[in-house]
Every structure is written in C-alpha cells, then in structure tokens.
Amino acid sequence: MLNWLASHDGEDDAMAAPSTCPPGTEHGSGSGSGCRRIFGDITTNRLWTFRVLMHEVLGPSEHLAVVGNCEALGNWQPAAAALMTQEDNVWSVEVYIPRHCATEYRYMVCAVEPSSEQPLVRRWETQFQARAIEELDEQPPKEQLDIFGSVNGQEKVDRGWLTREAIVQLKFFYAPFTFKQRMKRRHVQVKVTPMNLRIPSAGYEPSCGSAGPVSPPEDSLSNDTHDTRENGGDSSTAFAFSEVVTLSADECEIRAQEQFGTDCGPSDLVIFHITVGDLENTAYLIDLYTYSSRVAKEDGPPHHLGYHYVLPNLFKRSEGNLEIPITCAKGHRPLGMMRLGYLIVRPSALSAHMDMSVSYARYWNNKWTGLDVGHRGSGTSFKAKDAVIRENTITSLKNAAEHGADMVEFDVQLSKDLVPVVYHDFMIYVSLKSKCSMQEHDFLSLPMRELTLEQLKKLKVYHTAEGLSRETRSFHNDDMLEHQPFPQLSDVLDALDVHVGFNIEIKWSQRLQDGRMEEEFEHVVDRNLYIDCILDVVLRKGGNRRIVLSCFDPDICTMLRFKQNRYPVMFLTLGRTTKYKQYMDPRGNSMELAVWHAVAMQLLGIVAHTEDLLRDPSQVNLAKERGLVLFCWGDDNNSQDTIKLLKGLGLHAIIYDKMDVLTTKEVKQSVFHLQAKDSQKEMLKLQALEMGHVWHTSANGNEEQHA
C-alpha cells in the first residue's frame, strides 16, 4: 500500500490553481491511435517523442495515453489525450508541443469504449506536481525512459473516475447461500461475468476492441452446460472490467478475478467491482464453484455447482438486495437461493468536464496534523444549555473560524426540491398553531426532506430536542439571516474565508442492526441523484478551498469517490460503541473493516469514533500503516486533555465543540491561512532576488526588502 501523505515542502499550497500555458497552434484533435504526429508551425511548436516504460500487464482493451496542458495533449481532457503505441514494455507517441513555454503532462491507462470510441480513465498518475518539459529542455536519448507511476521517486497512481461508464458492485457478505441439507457445508467460490444483451445486426463483425476485457468464455465452466453461442461468443461478452475485492488484511485492494472465482465463506465480505460501458444492456452471469474436499482443491479444477443470470431490469434503484435462485449446472434444476446486495454508480453530469491537471483525492500534506475542526461550527447547540449560537449556521461556522478552527465540520442533506442545505437531524418539528403557543399537541414531526427550501425558511421549525421536550430554545440574534437554520450549501461556500477548510458530512439514513431505519421512513430520492445534487454545488463553488467529503454510509463514500476526481473522501465509522446503535452494514462497525473498505475504494482515510479509539488506542496504527488519514469525532473530544492525548497519538484532525473554549492555539488562524502567508512571503523573496533586491529579517521579526 502506497503512502499518499505528501512529504515535500514544495507542495505547501496544495490547493493552488494548476499552472497552464496558452494553447499552441497545433492542428488536429488530441485523440487518436498509434504513433501520430500533430503538425504545426515549427516556429511555435517542436516535435517531441514521449516514451514510458510500463511494468504491469495491461488488460486486452487497455492502452497507455499521455495528457497535458497543451492542445496536442488534450488540454488535460482525457477524451482528447494522445494514445500511445506499444513495443515490448515501452509505449510511445510523437506530438508537436509548444516551443516557448513549459509543457506539463501525465500518463494514464485508458480503455477505448467501442460505441463512442472515447477513452475511459482506468488509472492515472496523480502526483501533485505533474511531469514537465521546460522551455529549454532537449529531447532525451531513446534509452532514457519515463516510468509509469513514478515521478522524481514518488509513486502515485489512482483509479479513474466515471465519465461515460458505470460501476456495478455485487456484495456477497458472509456466504449468503441457502442450499439443500447435503450442500450446506460446501465452501463456495463465486465468479461474475458481464454479458452483452444487445442483439448484433445482420453481418455484424466484432472489432478487436468490442470484446470486453473480462474473462474469455472458456474460463467459465458454465460453458460445459450451456450453448456456447448463447453464453459467451465474441459478441456476447460485454465491454466491461470485472474485478473483485475481499475486505481482509491481505486482499483489500481491488484485483482481477481468478479463473474459478473468489472464496465467499461464512466470514468473508466480498465485493465484485464491475465497470461497464453499457449499463442498460449488460447482464451478469454468476457462476458458483466448489471442491469436493480441501484435498481436491490442489488436484484440479473445481466442480461447477450452479449459476444464475442477473438481468439489468432487476436493478430497480441505485441500491438494494436481490434474492435469486441458484440453478444446478448439471441438471438445470433449482439448487438453492442466494441473497446479495448491489450498488449502481452512474457518472455525474459534471464528471465528463473534470480535467486531469491535478487531483486531491488522496492528497494530504504531512504538515497537516493535529488539526482543530469545529463540530457543526461552534458545537452542538441542543445538548449544552449554555450554547448561545445555533449549530450548523453560517454564524456558527464563522465563529469557529474566528477562534482558530483549521476546518469546520457540518452536515448536508437535500430539501424536497433537491436543494443542498446544512442541517444535522433527519426529523424536524413544525408548529401547527401560533408561533407563540407551546401546547402539547402543537407539534407535527416530519422528515426534513418533506419540506421545500422555501418552507424551511418560512415556517417556524423546531429542532428534535425542542419537539420532544416541548421546551423551545433561543439563541443570540436569532432573527438575523446568518443565524438562521437551513443555510444553503452554496451560501456557506460563499460566506466563509477560502482558507477555512470544510469537512462536509453527507447525511444518509441507514438501516440499523434491528432492521429499523435511522430515519423512520424509506428514502424517496435515488442515491445517484442525491449525490449529484450535492456534488454539483461543491464542484461549482468549492474552488481552491480544502474540502473533505465524508459519510457514515460506505456505499455513499464509494459513490463520492468514483463520481469525481477532485476532492478526497473519508469514511465515518461507529466502531465498537455502547453509545449508539450499530448499523446493519458491518463495514462501519469495526476499525479493521473500516480501514479495509477505505483501502479498497481508495478513500483518503477514515473518521473514527473516539470512544472506540480510547478503548484501544493501538487501532490508530491500523490506519497509519495503510497510509490513511485519520480524523476522529465524538462527545469524548470535548475535553482539552482528550484533545491533547489524541494529538499525541498522531491523529490528523480532531472534531470537537466549543472552539472558543477548548482550543489552545495562540494564533487564532487556520493552518491553511498561515501556510498561504508563508507561500506568499517565499514568492516575494524570489521576486526581490530576481529584481536585485536584498531580503532580510528586521529586528522586530518582520521581513523586508531593500534595494
């Protein structure tokens, strides 16, 4: 596992806008195949050969490409990248690049989708500083090669994000099979093969790229019992990448499937991660294999136990559970049942416009440690009787920033008209009578999502604590706009200083272990639409602000990760707790599973529950050893002694209430603000030196320049 924590001083101002140069006068598009030349005026352009050594084996439909900050390299757009040709392990392409400015570039592994002939980003180099060809650089000798993923000794490669394709995840948790009595003790291996449902037109000849990079039909023993023309000819295998991950210490990175599948035992959590080009016309052949005994596993191939085809029309929503029959591979009779969960991740409307100039998805500067994060701004206001500022308001967030918060944490969910607003609880209370009346039956409990933004603004809405206790609370300047609850996410992004970091928690009601929902009602808005509405605001308004996205729902974290390539995602967890009811999904109920899920989905890290960390502080190492960033949350954090202890353990950030009381900072500014000041000083020093001026530190500590 690579350590993604940045360690170079040159990366201090991590969220600064990437440098670009004006587009040159090259002719032709930035996409193509093979070794190509893009001709232009030789006074403004020069021919350059890009050569890169690729150590790993690529899939049948995978290619290397180069993308960069000039027209010939696609202006950082993956769809216009220059495709390369292969000779042994070396890939190359010739293009004309600008002569009079630096050219920045990155290599990526892409797959060309047959129907659109557009490259899909499979993996790409994500070093903060891209590779660069300076204005005066000469073409290096042929034997001097770039190495894919390695830049100046730093190895960083990330999975891509969704542009036109989709991800289907099938979850086999704890051997979800029901067999007849004689089969109950059988250990089962599962393989998933995407199948193309499109009927080829007459005279159809599949191109070399149309067959998907999945296991060829002969790898599936289901061909022993099915008509091979129907079940796996060249035109029946879908354009897809079928991979798998097991949430365990040794197998928690997504990998290609084995020929006869993956163990799905009683203690295994297995997720099949399938990237498909045509979601609506792809089915999934699930093959089950077993060995007659443990000894037989070493002697030869397994027995093909059974199979089932999952058709796309079974996916009614973006997530759900399927209970499907297992058909005996030999006799084609019912053999049993299996129950699996599924998740569909679709590309967002903005994803096709994201470029490859920079990514912060797993970027964290090693100077950012022990950060102070204001919980809901200045703290939870309905647990403490002495709170004078309402939680999750613009005023609360600003107050925390003014008292030195490096970041502020707040909760976001959607109103009925799909507007992202800042509010914590799923339920609210609405007054049915006069605002001055407080009788026993004056309140109506509603899901917050059942009111539009206008209704939330105009109605007298009470917090859950007020509704249950029938005691209203008043806060300072409650009538002023920035003190009002339900601020829009867009307004919050505009209102706070850009140097204040944001930890945006996405609220999503989950099912608890006892079968009930956190919120009393089932979701009515589809997951993909829900996340897209929030990301639309964040991506349009976020700019260069340090933003971390987080959620308690592991599937929401997966969606946030693969729907965009800019902002990092962290998995919020409960761990082992006596204070809260645990979720039905086990991934957030223990530190180990949370870490393995974060590694599998390439998240930045996890936000652990301090109750669990204090129970066993050695768990901090579980995250650190995997190169993950670690935040923590919980009521236990509201103590200076606990905050000091957690910082001593090396946590990257602590989320707590009452920033004005508990912070021990002498300088009440965020670390990002101070860092920006230092970067500005360094820039002024360089400018002074270039102009022949002298820069020195005066007696009072101020830095000055003199001619």
TrEMBL record:
GO terms for molecular function: glycerophosphocholine phosphodiesterase activity; starch binding. The keyword ATP-binding does not apply. Keywords: Hydrolase. Residues 42-150 form the CBM20 domain. Gene3D superfamilies: Immunoglobulins, Phosphatidylinositol (PI) phosphodiesterase. Pfam families: C2_GDE1 (PF25329), CBM_20 (PF00686), GDPD (PF03009). Residues 1-33, 206-235 are annotated as: Disordered. InterPro entries: C2_GPCPD1, Carb-bd-like_fold, CBM20, GDPD, GP_PDE_dom, Ig-like_fold, PLC-like_Pdiesterase_TIM-brl. Residues 370-666 form the GP-PDE domain. One of its GO terms (biological process) is glycerophospholipid catabolic process. PANTHER family: GLYCEROPHOSPHOCHOLINE PHOSPHODIESTERASE GPCPD1, GLYCEROPHOSPHORYL DIESTER PHOSPHODIESTERASE. This is Glycerophosphocholine phosphodiesterase GPCPD1. It comes from Drosophila madeirensis (Fruit fly).
